Amino acid sequence: MAYLEGGATYFTADHIKADKKVAFIHTDYRRAGYAKQMDQECYEAFERIFAISEAVRDAFLQIYPEYEGKTGIFYNLLNQERIRMLAEKQVNFTGDFHGYVILTVGRLTVAKAFDIALQAMALLKKEGPAVRWYVLGEGDQRAVLERQRAELGLREDFIFLGAVDNPFPYYRRCDLYVHATRYEGRSMAIQEAQTLGCAILASDCAGNRGQIREGTDGRLCRLTPESIAAGIRELLPDREQRERLGRAAAQRVKAQEEQPEQLIRMLL
User: What pTM did the predictor assign?
Assistant: First the structure.
């Protein structure tokens, strides 16, 4: 199995000897910069191709319509019981801060749009309520984002905590999980937040839209500083709405069928 597009897929296609080969697609293939010229017909070597969401499949098939018959959906698998167990561990990352806590989990890359999140935080700081925004993850944009944070005067308000081994207690501690990205395949972080009953605000892109039903188990917003800040200002003081959304999110992810049998049947 080639579990990531790009190098792992090329290597598996060209250098692995196997009776059956499977490739996984995790991202919007067009927006991530992949093309047929780059792939050099590598997908011909695979018996099955699994996309992690409907949106990811549709984007891939716009480039490779000839593989529609062998391209299916295989959602991310989560060990929800283990996530809930690990979430019970205690962490103190907020110190003596007593305002609202926002969390985002994701790589510090252009796709995750932390540059826009920082602008949204600047609006929140001007107009309230009292908020700190914490980010778990590392990436190639960290230095750029730290400069932007300094320019906006947000050193104490928008905190990059880096990568951690166990992110789940952080979900438990936050008042709102925000996932405002430029594009998304199917976010594992959203699934984790749903598993732990977080209220979620996400940008209205195809991948996020496939995981969140607006107003039912989360909220969607435009990817602008103003729309993100407005969504946060609406949700944070409304504890009843946040708790309702969190309960519905937990029920949704619990009800999702896991699909290991689909892969097992193909491999037998």
Answer: 0.80
